[in-house]
Amino acid sequence: MQAVQFSTHGDRDVLEYGDFPDPEIDRDEVLIDVKAAALNYLDIWTRRGLPGIDLEMPHIPGSDAAGVVEAVGEDVTRFEAGDRVSVLAGKSGGDDEFTRKGDPTLAPDFHIIGEHVRGVHSEYAAVPAANLAPVPEGVDWETAAAAPLVFQTAWRMLRDRGGLQAGEKVLVLGASGGVGHAAVQIADLAGAEVFATASSEEKLGYAEEIGADHTIDYEETDFASEIREMTDGRGVDMVVDHVGAQTWQSSLESLVKGGRVVTCGATTGGTPETDLNRIFWNQLSVIGSTMATPGQAEEVLELVWDGTLEPRIRETFPMSEIASAHEMLENREGFGKVVVVPDSEL
Ligand SMILES: NC(=O)c1ccc[n+]([C@@H]2O[C@H](COP(=O)([O-])OP(=O)(O)OC[C@H]3O[C@@H](n4cnc5c(N)ncnc54)[C@H](OP(=O)(O)O)[C@@H]3O)[C@@H](O)[C@H]2O)c1
């Protein structure tokens, strides 16, 4: 088969699209004929190399894909050839207390397809049946590939970890990105008043289209001061931050007393200065969140499949142009998700 791959970590020039041995399925796995796949910022981290993760080379990156079941392993009963499926990349194989309690994201062996093990930016992929969600007829392949990782992440962040309530004020940073644009839609659906930041007027216009009530260009202005002004000095109840070092202090400054910041990422760096005085005096909560349980993922995907929530597609590239797809994310171009399609499907 043809697959995106790299043999050493590095810049975009380490990426290749070429021959790779066909995947073989284990008893609990499903072979998927990939129709579309999507990028996440994680693909950039994985390509550059993450501390403590020693990948088997060559590595196939990619955590999001959708396609048709080609074959199933002997133990698989949930799927059969011809079914339409999306990949849920969070994986825990262990029989530990967390997995038994229904939250594999907390399991010691929790890992992510594409980050820790070979991923799905390829013509075919072997994926455990437990890591697949059914996709109804009528949902297009781009949507089925683009939605799973970021919508499950934002769903757990806002609803399960953040406890978002209708009527609350929520600030979503980086609203043009995958997680950001999912968070804006989920906050709007929950009945929150949504404040959104992005780095251009055009992106802010899109953020309004998908549910933001107020927008701030955080490249042009200090967003914490803007938030104070927009809320008559009060601040917001929740900040959704995946940008990291560059925004962290202003995120804390944007919160009302008793407010909470939920973080799932640190694109601009993971070791920001933090003002502990502000955290204890204002009784702020700092909440981490990663991926979601299969149940949470399927809950939010139902809302994508019925059109309530919608991944916006920035651009679709043939997989052979994977370097241009990575470049789009690294250069902060566009709004929503970048999709790649096996060249043989075009
Ligand atoms: N823990 C988890 O489970 C989990 C899950 C998903 C993602 N994440 C993390 O969350 C972060 C966002 O992921 P994503 O897939 O949504 O990424 P993405 O689609 O590339 O979006 C990132 C957004 O952040 C903003 N940004 C600000 N400074 C940036 C910079 N220096 N470089 C790139 N973008 C910058 C950009 O919006 P503007 O140009 O409008 O500012 C961009 O649209 C990543 O760090 C990722 O690893 C974590």
UniProtKB/TrEMBL annotation:
It comes from the Archaea. One of its GO terms (molecular function) is anion binding. Its EC number is 1.1.1.1. GO terms for biological process: small molecule metabolic process. Gene3D superfamilies: Medium-chain alcohol dehydrogenases, catalytic domain, NAD(P)-binding Rossmann-like Domain. SUPFAM superfamilies: GroES-like, NAD(P)-binding Rossmann-fold domains. SMART domains: PKS_ER. Keywords: NADP, Oxidoreductase. Residues 10-340 form the Enoyl reductase (ER) domain. This is Alcohol dehydrogenase. It comes from Halanaeroarchaeum sulfurireducens.
